[in-house]
Design the sequence.
């Protein structure tokens, strides 16, 4: 059985999208959540149309998963590991694709 995804692995996929290395595609958007695909990875993000709050879960192509655990310490959410610039880039990409 494959190991679980780490927050850093999920964050790296978001960084790649922010830098334009990988494409980000919005799959489904609701008022409080958006589902995106980044080169075969599927992420569900808590997003209110302006601000990206956190990553809810992620599934990578090899079947490994990451899920937000609210009991985890601060800093374990992939979004919280992004730089201010990277976060702004992801929010901009999400706004462009709504």
Sequence:
């Amino acid at each position: 059985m494959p190991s679980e995804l780490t927050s850093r692995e999920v964050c790296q996929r978001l960084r790649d999208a922010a830098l334009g290395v990988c494409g980000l595609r919005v799959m489904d958007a609701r008022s409080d959540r958006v589902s995106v695909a980044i080169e075969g990875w599927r992420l569900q993000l808590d997003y209110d149309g302006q601000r990206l709050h956190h990553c809810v879960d992620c599934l990578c192509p090899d079947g490994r998963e990451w899920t937000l655990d609210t009991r985890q310490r601060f800093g374990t959410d992939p979004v919280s590991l992004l730089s201010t610039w990277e976060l702004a880039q992801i929010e901009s990409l999400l706004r462009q694709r709504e």
